[in-house]
Write a structure and sequence with these properties.
single chain, 246 residues, alpha/beta, 7-stranded parallel beta sheet, 7 strands, 15% strand, globular, binds NADPH dihydro-nicotinamide-adenine-dinucleotide phosphate
Length: 246
Amino acid sequence: MEDRKVVLVTGAARGIGREIALIMAEKGYDISLNFRTKSDELDKLKEIIEEKGVRCFLVQGDVTHFEETEKIVEETIKEFGKIDVLVNNAGITKDGLLMRMAKDDFEKVIDTNLVGTFNMTRNVIPHMVKQKSGRIINISSVVGVVGNAGQTNYSASKAGIIGFTKSLAKEVASRNILVNAVAPGFISTDMTSILADSVKENINNQIPLKKMGTAEDVAKVVKFLASEDSSYITGQVINVDGGMVM
Ligand code: NDP
């Protein structure tokens, strides 16, 4: 059997995670595709990935539950024998002004975006330490860098991911494990499709490149951070935002 590299992507059934899985498959990685909700689309996605000549393993699990992340990692190791790259992509929003925000809406977002990233990474790192190599790529957001009214929960979670990324990068650099974050701006996916057209137009006007990004724009940077071309980069946050934050 060919010795291909293995990438585990969380929340990869749709949106940015799906595109990351597709681009990494194109690049020749075997894909461990984590999903939370079963859908008819999943088998089709597995087929599309396998048509690229690599293997695709579908693994269900909710990243907010530590035991489930243990299982996601164990099953991936059982299937492929290793994990070379972990992409912590699963994420949610529950927007609202702080004055009206329910505690549950704050906690759910932190639990998914930040604790979920911890849960997955905590289970993957021992394998990477043992194999003396690895890449962790965390999907943050520019909102974690500059803040956004109506997103105290989301921006706290994404800023937390940035601190987590930098601290872990320092902890594991000597083990040849590189840890970086990608901070997308506004990207056209289900997450942003809920915005009113007038809001989207307003957003586009604030972006120097005058348009929202695509999932592919983000996936291409993840591909770079997983590759040998980025072997001297760790602890960094790369904004993919059409120039919104500079
Ligand atoms: P989508 O809403 O399109 O997709 C999110 C994915 O995450 C879904 O597959 C969803 O699964 C999965 N997910 C959510 N919660 C969990 C969980 N507890 N366990 C496992 N999987 C889960 O979002 P995007 O593709 O737009 O976003 C992907 C990442 O990029 C997120 O971290 C987001 O915060 C970040 N991002 C997005 C931006 C944008 O403009 N779109 C901008 C900046 C950052 P399910 O189908 O079960 O809901």
